[in-house]
Write a structure and sequence with these properties.
By secondary structure, the protein is mostly helical. The protein has five helices and no strands.
Amino acid sequence: IVGLVAGALFVYMFTKVQNRWKIDDVLGVWPLHGLCGLWGGIAAGIFGSTALGGLGGVNVLAQTIGSLLGVTIALLGGFLVYGLLKVTVGIRMSQEDEYDGADLSIHKISATPDRDSNW
C-alpha cells in the first residue's frame, strides 16, 4: 500500500512539476525524495502498529512530527546554502543556458537529439 501510494504520488507530482509549474527537475528529486519520503515516514506510523500487522512501537503522531521536523531542517538548510551561494557566486545561468536547460548547458547531454551539442 505504501509503495502504491508513493508511486502514484510521484507520477502525479512529477508530471505537475514538469508540465504545469515548468520546473526543470529532470530526475524528479523533489517529488521522489521530498514527497514520497515524507509519505513513507508518516506511513511507518500508520502501518507499523500491531493492529495493522506491524511490529508496534511506533506512533502516528511521533512519525508525523519527526517527518515534518525533517522537512523543516531540509528547508532551512536549503535556504541557507542557496542564500549563501546566491550572494557569493550566483545561482542563475544565462538566459540562453536557461532556455537550453542545465543538462545541455552544463553536462552536454539532452533528451532532444536535434539540440545535442557536437563534441
